[in-house]
Amino acid sequence: MTLQPTISAVTDRVIERSRSSRTRYLDLIARERDSGVDRPNLSCGNLAHGFAASGEDKPVIRDGKAMNIGIVTAYNDMLSAHQPYGRYPDQMKIWAREAGITAQVAGGVPAMCDGVTQGQRGMELSLFSRDTIALSTAVALSHGMFEGAALLGICDKIVPGLLIGALRFGHLPTILVPAGPMPSGLANKEKQRVRQLYAEGKVGRAELLEAESASYHGAGTCTFYGTANSNQMMMEVMGLHIPGAAFVNPGTKLRQELTRKAVHRLAEIGWDGGDYRPLGQCVDEKAIVNAAVGLLATGGSTNHVIHLPAIARAAGILIDWDDIDRLSAAVPLIARVYPNGSGDVNHFQAAGGMAYTISTLLDGGLLHRDLMTVSTGDLTEYAREPMLDGDALAWADAPANSLDETMLRSYDAPFLPDGGMRLVTGNLGRATFKTSAVDPARWTIEAAVRIFEDQDQVAAAFKAGELDRDVVVVVRFQGPRANGMPELHKLTPLLGVLQDKGFKVALVTDGRMSGASGKVPAAIHVTPEAMGGGPLSRLRDGDVVRLDAVAGCLEVRLAPIVFEGRAPAAPPIAGSGTGRELFGFMRVGANDAEQGASAMLAGADL
Q1: Tens digit of pLDDT for each residue in 351-362?
Q2: Model-level pTM?
Q3: Residues 157 and 292 grouped into a single domain
Q4: pLDDT of 479-492, one tens digit each?
Q5: What's the longest Cα–Cα distance across the chain?
Q6: How many domains are contained in the chain?
Q7: Residue numbering of the annotated binding site
Q8: Does residue 584 lie in a domain region?
Q9: Is Iron one of the keywords (predicted)?
């Protein structure tokens, strides 16, 4: 089918805007391929250090005639999604030998768990952990020992960080290797019910912990459709996985064979063969637009309106929130995965998963088919699902129809006609409103505001009954330059309780909400942020704010001369402890959320 006109127009807009920066990027990776640091250019001393402890692979690495894969791993055994990676490097070295090549662990990157740090001080490090991961990836690949890379990571900031770092080595063929979601546990609606009861004081901590433990219960990615699983979806529609690798459970034979195939495929797409597929050419403007389309079509995480521009900039590509807003108006919502529906990613996989999703979006002209993927062909390869034929890996065509239309539908019979991620603008700035998770009756609210400067203040006011009214809760000084832009997911149960009591409630913040944000209307990532005198810093308790997703409006109902004449509120003192002070330089140097909220990218003029 012909590409849908809005998809085509937005892609053309991104290509034109990126023409100069993309040319510079492609020139960079061409130079790195031709004259950068690689094994033939290393001195004997350099090279000897590089293979000194490589055991049985030492003769092959020393000879220099076979590809050597650099494994960059985000393994730790505290993070359930990444615990399975512990055994991967040893297995991958064996599979590399099967293909006549070698593999070494190039380096490790940090992998923090937002589930553990949610609502805690450590969440102020969360967003900047992405840039730390990107820097760590660059350090790992800087040794010049590798002709390809395998990136082992899944969760929130980890995949974007790995990808940003690896894109600066875009001459290397690179495959992202997931480990899969944990099996389903406690039903998500029951977990949500217990959380709200706890917020109301109707159950205790023991009951809450029991519910949480039954939900997050084993190895693998958390099963709700938040940032981690949105990462996996994006890697599929960008063609950076082995097809169908996203949502296969860990510890299965199929998962093992998909990882084995990733290693073998890297051997086939190296620069000495006839199918050279460098990462920097795979991640082009069409791939970035595909990622945005996939995000919108599946109701994915709002965190990616920050991460996707950052990933794009690392490849010389400029995409902004206007582009995403235009795409959202044209892309139908075809998936309902918790928190936008009742089932989790395992149910999504059973309903047809990424194979059916890509198949129907291609049929509707909503995805670019003609990508350079890491597989053998274009994106058509990803409209197939992996399976085992005996012990051998094989693929079958996606089902002709969704196997569960309460969870997954075709492009021409969607849940909603648009992707449900709206840009709202006005005299308070620019922000994102995820409408796909919110009842349309709640898309517009106008009410007096109550101003807060951290989540704990909101919780205290809630417990005191001070928010039992129609209210727009404003939590400011939560942007990247203020405190590192923590997620405010802790507020969802509280505001949900108020909404269930019949009050009209909304959240406005320059912080992030979460990939797991749900039913409460929220204008998040407000840009410019309050720090530095942004409009939110001039709001006062009692001001009337209108948030209207239908009209795309975010404004305070005050005359310009009154509002703009106010002095900005003084920012709170930056927190210390839990390592927060070490990230001060990242806060000071960060660009705004629409550009990726990154001091690293700003400092590199990307």
Answers
A1: 999 999 999 999
A2: 0.95
A3: yes
A4: 999 999 998 888 88
A5: 75
A6: 3
A7: 155, 222
A8: no
A9: yes
